[in-house]
Amino acid sequence: MHKRSHRLAVAALLLLGTASAQACEIWRDEDLGIWRGNCNLRDKFMVAHSFLANYESRLVLKWPDLHVRKFKFFVSGPSITIEADIENIGMANAPASTFFVDASFGNPLTMMQQGSSMQWTVNVPALPANTSQRVSVATVNVPNSAQDWDLVLVGTADPPTMAQPVRGLIIESDETNNVKNHACRWFGPMPDTSLQACN
Questions:
Q1: Shortest CA distance to 151 belongs to which of 99, 115, 98?
Q2: 155 exposure class (CB count in 10 Å sphere: 0-12, 13-18, 19+)
Q3: In terms of C-beta distances under 8 Å and separation of at least 24 residues, what long-range contacts does 70-75 make, across chains too?
Q4: Is the CB of residue 89 less than 8 Å from the CB of residue 105?
Q5: pTM of the model
């Protein structure tokens, strides 16, 4: 019997006073993941006692956890260079992966998308636990310099694939925090600063 069951047996005996070790049977219920006990004290006390004991497992699975920390922009005239910080906030090292970015320009005057979306897949190097890496995504040009333009981004670390449609290629401790949405504004001659600037 494992040490934990021994401790449970001792605790049960302390609770039940002068009962002998042979009076109590303790076992693990594999289906429910709990400990069960059955003490027959009829010989001394004319009673029988059953109990259940939950326990907290000490097994901690250590997996990587990729996360898009932030986007970074550098503006030069009508051009916007896009970079991103990818971090591994998990408890294990992450192998090399990919980072998928979908970007589009929005027209703040019409509240409509301008043109087609742009998409890139960027390689991300292996990341030890609790480290980050800045990766270059692309450089884009605003449609024209006569007005403001909104750059709208959706970035996904370790994106799903045909083989793994629910998650990416890397098994992570948290598969729900891989996506980052961000929008910033490139300012034209008459800037509307209601949205943060790309620079």
A1: 115
A2: buried
A3: 70/180, 70/182, 71/153, 71/155, 71/180, 71/182, 71/184, 72/134, 73/151, 73/184, 73/198, 73/199, 74/199, 75/186, 75/197, 75/198, 75/199
A4: no
A5: 0.70
Burial of residue 188 (number of CB atoms within 10 Å: 0-12, 13-18, 19+): middle
Bridge partners of 101, per DSSP, are: 120, 155
Q: Exposed e or buried b for every residue in 85-108, given b needs 16+ CB within 10 A?
A: ebbbbbeeebeebbbbbebbbbee
pLDDT digits (tens, 9 = 90+) for 104-154: 999 999 999 999 999 999 999 999 999 999 999 999 999 999 999 999 999
| Tokens encoding 104 | 């589009």
One-letter amino acid at 70 equals K
Q: Where are the domains of the chain?
A: 3-53, 66-186
How many Cβ atoms sit within 10 Å of the Cβ of residue 25?
Answer: 13
Fold adopted by 66-186: Immunoglobulin-like (2.60.40)
